[in-house]
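Whiteboard transcription, Tuesday session. T.W. wrote the structure tokens on the left side:
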């Protein structure tokens, strides 16, 4: 996160695409003030005056293709308030508040581009001069709501409580500082159970990118006081998604067989009904399926409700489910019948689990 937004003049290695192959909406490196992203897609911003604007093409990293970049009408809530033209949609209101430290909506200046230390720890000049625990915000030393709000402020889809703000429509929590009550600034998009929309599947699981916070606050993990950094270390690790440990080792720290948190079986194999080490025995495959889109085709991130989406829910609401996502040659009817024969799983809760 500390390097997601970079100037290609200062960091030419940040430009991972070949602009000469762009046939979607051509532009040159001289037009690019910033590149954004390198994992799923790379987008390109140009600068006009004090504002930045998204150029019309993005590079899909996994798919190795160029595609159009434009937020369509009727999708993101703010799109209706801006003309259908990228050059009429500055990134200050829509993006920059989360991709910087201290974005000032009046001067359009930042203290620092990218997610620097002060984004999560608050103003730090006094702490830098006289380091103590009392003059810096540390999410691990606060309550679980404020702790996770440090991440949810940007890893969520929502809108400010005040709309518009000084005549503009912002897609980030303007005015919020870590340690404050995020709910005083920001309202999460809410699911409507039974309806699939731009943000959610019909069961309330997100299907759009950057919605880990919307998912997480629905989970029993969150209600029990687990925080984002119970699992992730944003300062960096060698594990996928900056996890503190590889995923299955991390899950089993709290969810070992016969532990109070479950599973209620003597072995993991009895719980998963799959061989140890197989995909079906990976906790995240069933409880955090890859169903939340990062935008480009075939790019998905893990759901964070930690609910198991049953084949019956998939049938009723058209939600992807872990069983037939792996067993692509099988039907949801087959999967439902198989699960009903698992002795440790209540057949009465198949619809809800």
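and on the right, the sequence the group agreed on:
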């Amino acid at each position: 996160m500390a390097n997601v937004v970079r100037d290609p003049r200062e960091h030419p290695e940040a430009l991972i695409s070949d602009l000469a192959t762009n046939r979607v909406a051509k532009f040159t490196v001289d037009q690019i003030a910033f590149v954004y992203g390198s994992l799923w897609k790379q987008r390109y911003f140009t600068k006009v005056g004090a504002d930045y604007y998204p150029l019309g093409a993005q590079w899909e990293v996994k798919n190795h293709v160029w595609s159009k970049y434009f937020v369509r009408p009727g999708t993101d809530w703010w799109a209706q308030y801006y003309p259908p033209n990228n050059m009429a949609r500055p990134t200050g209101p829509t993006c920059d508040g989360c991709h910087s430290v201290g974005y000032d909506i009046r001067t359009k200046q930042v203290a620092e581009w990218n997610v620097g230390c002060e984004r999560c720890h608050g103003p730090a000049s006094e702490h830098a001069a006289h380091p103590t625990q009392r003059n810096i915000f540390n999410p691990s030393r606060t309550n679980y709501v404020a702790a996770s709000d440090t991440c949810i402020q940007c890893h969520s889809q929502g809108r400010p409580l005040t709309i518009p703000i000084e005549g503009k429509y912002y897609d980030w929590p303007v005015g919020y500082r870590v340690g404050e009550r995020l709910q005083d600034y920001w309202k999460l998009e809410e699911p409507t159970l039974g309806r699939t929309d731009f943000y959610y599947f019909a069961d309330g699981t997100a299907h759009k990118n950057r919605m880990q916070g919307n998912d997480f606050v629905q989970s029993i993990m969150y209600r029990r006081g687990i925080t984002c950094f119970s699992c992730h270390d944003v300062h960096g690790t060698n594990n996928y998604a900056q996890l503190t440990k590889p995923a299955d080792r991390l899950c089993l720290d709290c969810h070992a067989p016969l532990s109070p948190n479950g599973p209620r079986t003597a072995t993991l194999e009895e719980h998963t009904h799959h061989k140890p080490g197989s995909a079906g025995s990976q906790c995240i495959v069933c409880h955090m399926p890859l169903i939340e889109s990062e935008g480009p085709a075939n790019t998905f991130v893990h759901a964070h409700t930690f609910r198991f989406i049953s084949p019956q829910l998939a049938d009723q609401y058209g939600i992807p489910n872990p069983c037939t996502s792996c067993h692509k040659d099988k039907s949801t009817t087959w999967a439902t019948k198989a699960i009903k024969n698992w002795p440790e799983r209540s057949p009465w809760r198949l619809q809800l689990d």
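Someone added at the bottom: The radius of gyration is 22 Å.
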